[in-house]
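Quick illustration, no need to memorize.
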Amino acid sequence: MRPSPPGAPLAATQLRREVRAFLEGEEFTPRCDSWLTGFDPAFSRRLGERGWLGMTVPRRFGGHGRGTLERFAVIEELLAAGAPVAAHWIADRQMAPALVAHGSSEQRRRFLPAIASGECFFAIGMSEPDSGSDLASVRTRARRVHDGWSLTGTKVWSSGAHRAHVILVLARTAPAGPDRHAGLSQFLVTLPDPAVTVRPILGLAGEHHFNEVTFDEAFVPDGMLLGEPGAGWRQVTAELAHERGGPERMLSTFPLIRAAAAQAGDDAARRALAGLLARAWTLRRASMAVAGALERGDDAGARAALVKDLGTRFEREVIDVVRAHIPVEPDPDSLAPLARALAEAVVQAPGFTLRGGTTEILRGIVARELGVR
């Protein structure tokens, strides 16, 4: 990975000014969890036009060749504003780095420029009905056929699969042995596909973000295998560090904090909100450390798991603090920003512990890193 060039902090500061100016000219309703709920393809394309997607992708692959710190500054501003970034989020966050690291020349030519322009959206097919965060136990299988693979199995919690152009699927290509992590591979499956069925998994308020995706002998050409056969576990581990360690793990409820700060009527409420901001700043530093490790090519799996675990707890406590100190009832239809933001946060909160790995799995990863498991 390319290190941040000299002067990167100054460039990041300038980028923040540019993003804030851009957002002031945009019309959108700030949302909690906007990287999951704020789906707006036109907004994604406008970000692409400004070079704010595919930022760390090398120029030779159709990206912009900028540093991780610069990208961090851009996405932090977008998340803090509750901007509608869900359409491109998975593609930009983890698929672009995966394609740079493991993609074939043809895969890079086909997908990376489209990701950078905000024209290609991805979903992830990892978790399964009976495996949850234990990815080594996946039962989706890819059987070798002429010129490709036949994919059969079911994935769940696939965010945005009903709108995605491509889904990256983890499947078993060899029988499980003593090493359960061996024999797994990743495949790029274009959508829609007659052999792929996408069914909604509705949220508490009837919203549709998650999906169950079933593959019924779906044909995947050889050219759509990502990386090497059997290398899926190593590749997934790297992708999960991108997924778990980003600023979305502590900024999903930031629009709620901002709305609450505007209505904090006494010192106790202001002190409680100030405490949240202090914790968010600490988590931010931890997230930046993960970004730096990924840029250097270091193993950031345990650090990213820790950020995700702490971020999950923090986001839930934001809701509790606001409800304890400010007299407001959640109302998704309210014109009042605080009531609406609180409703969005409450509805999305159960998913905080699911996406990116359950709390138990994350703590197990950290425990192994510390040598206590």
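The beta strands are 122-125, 141-145, 148-155, 166-172, 184-190, 196-202, 208-221, 225-226.
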